[in-house]
Design goal:
The protein has 478 residues and is α+β, with helices and mostly antiparallel strands. Helices cover 47% and strands 12% of the residues. Strands 1-2-4-5-3 form a 5-stranded antiparallel beta sheet, sandwiched between helices. A 5-stranded antiparallel beta sheet has the order 6-7-9-10-8, sandwiched between helices. α12 packs antiparallel against α15.
């Protein structure tokens, strides 16, 4: 008997008064102004509606209320099931009797209707969310291709993917995480191409997340899904704000994770080669796409090696090749070169943070001050040498050739370690730092537990060539 009583506490009753008393206490409707409830007459019966002001469409609400209040006793169905099938002129209608699910949908903005004598709640999904336009993202731009981008509303994002993949094999499964936030998480994948073993493992990880809220959206979710080797800076996920990129990865058998309130998609499993790829590689002819891809790889390598190699050559001038003596520092060095590089590494990040938080109207004065103070005046004052400024300017600009912020900062951290080891131990420190970076990349693992450098290891020459060379689409005629 006690078990039956506990079960009944989880389910609504047929008494409207009891249901209203429970919900009014649970939702604290008298304390929150945006939680609205109203008692009406539906077909001669007492009824009550619950909704959140701001999530419901006003015109739709008005039409629904006019219809419900216009029902007569003769037209009134006998139960909730019959009413949902025959008497509600709306598409998205659901029936629930579990209080936890009912409260979740009400707090998500769904219109809830309780009727005296009905043992289930009628949930009408007429909600609308504040949203911006699906314009091209500021960071993930492409020279060609579509100019739309993900927004903070997950339903809009799934529609952008559905627009590109009109296949019955496309699946979009909904999950929730966070005891307080109840954040919506959507897994998008192709059922006939995905690794089902990894998919089930990923689902289980999401279901077993025990946090109060995903306060930082995707980053909070990423930390919950991948807890191993947090000290390895190389990204375990690929992030994109482009629907075409996400759709392409889904068609390749990857899983795309969409989180509500986040305008970007997480792609997994991801290798180092996946992170470096960009949409422009495929929006141009094969020869141009190959050039862009190889240029990106080369520039990424130079951003890591440029300043440590210069520092090593300044320690060992005899190693400078003939004809390249002009790279030597000619002016007096008032501050050790390694300290100049480290200070500028920090200063560049400071300027980046300042640019993010600077209002648009003050962006020009900030640029002028940065150019004068950290440019000409810092060299003339003797703090920095002009050669150091030149190489750090190249590194700062080259960082923006990578679409991934995470990869850019991973290279930055490894470059700083290389500078420090080279300054202390010379050539052996330089070699040790490079070995450390190789170990960090090779020992890293994707979320699925596979090699981070595949198809380099395990070696697959055919797939490896595709990572560097942009081939024509399969099926393209000569």
């Amino acid at each position: 008997m006690d078990r039956d009583a506990d079960r009944n506490k989880d389910k609504m009753s047929t008494s409207l008064a009891e249901n209203m008393q429970y919900l009014n206490e649970r939702l604290a409707v008298d304390e929150s102004f945006d939680l609205v409830y109203r008692v009406i007459q539906v077909g001669g019966r007492e009824a009550c509606i619950y909704f959140i002001d701001g999530f419901c469409k006003d015109e739709m609400m008005q039409k629904m209320l006019q219809y419900f209040m216009g029902l007569t006793k003769e037209e009134m169905p006998k139960d909730a099931h019959e009413m949902s099938k025959k008497s509600i002129p709306y598409v998205e209608v659901d029936l629930l009797d579990n209080w936890e699910q009912i409260v979740y949908f009400i707090m998500s903005g769904v219109f809830a209707l309780f009727i005296e004598g009905f043992d289930r709640c009628l949930l009408i999904d007429s909600r609308t969310y504040p949203a911006r336009s699906v314009s091209e993202p500021e960071k993930d731009k492409a020279l060609r291709g579509s100019k739309d981008g993900f927004v903070e509303t997950v339903v809009f994002n799934t529609a952008l993917i559905r627009r590109r993949i009109r296949s019955t094999h496309l699946r979009m499964e909904l999950f929730h995480a966070g005891n307080s936030s109840q954040t919506d998480i959507v897994l998008c994948y192709m059922d006939n191409r995905v690794d089902h073993q990894f998919l089930e493992k990923l689902k289980q990880r999401i279901k077993t997340i025990h946090v109060d809220a995903l306060t930082m959206n995707q980053e909070s979710l990423a930390e919950c899904l991948y807890k191993k080797k947090w000290y390895n800076p190389f990204p375990k996920f690929k992030f994109t704000e482009r629907p075409d990129t996400a759709s392409a990865q889904i068609l390749e058998g990857d899983i795309v994770i969409l989180v509500d309130n986040s305008p970007s998609a997480m792609i997994t499993p991801t290798s180092i080669f996946d992170v470096v790829e960009e949409a422009d590689d495929y929006y141009f002819p094969p020869i141009t796409g190959t050039y862009l891809r190889l240029s990106r790889f080369l520039i990424a390598l130079l951003t890591y090696l440029m300043t440590p190699t210069f520092l090593l050559l300044m320690q060992r001038p005899e190693w400078i090749p003939a004809g390249f003596e002009f790279i030597m520092v000619k002016d007096p060095t008032n501050l050790p070169l390694v300290w100049q590089f480290l200070i500028l590494e920090l200063a560049i990040d400071g300027l980046r943070l300042a640019a993010v938080n600077t209002p648009n109207m003050l962006s020009t004065p900030l640029s002028v001050m940065a150019a004068l103070v950290l440019g000409e005046f810092s060299v003339n004052s003797g703090w920095f040498n002009s050669e150091v400024m030149l190489y750090m300017a190249f590194v700062a600009i080259s960082n923006y050739t990578q679409a991934s912020y995470e990869l850019g900062y991973a290279i930055k951290f490894m470059r700083i370690i290389n500078l420090i080891l080279t300054a202390i131990f010379g050539l052996w420190g330089y070699i040790a730092a490079i070995a450390l970076m190789v170990v960090a990349v090779v020992s890293n693992r994707t979320v699925s537990g596979k090699s981070y450098v595949y198809p380099l290891y395990p070696l697959n020459l055919k797939q490896l060539s595709k990572r560097f060379i942009r081939y024509r689409l399969p099926g393209a005629r000569e």
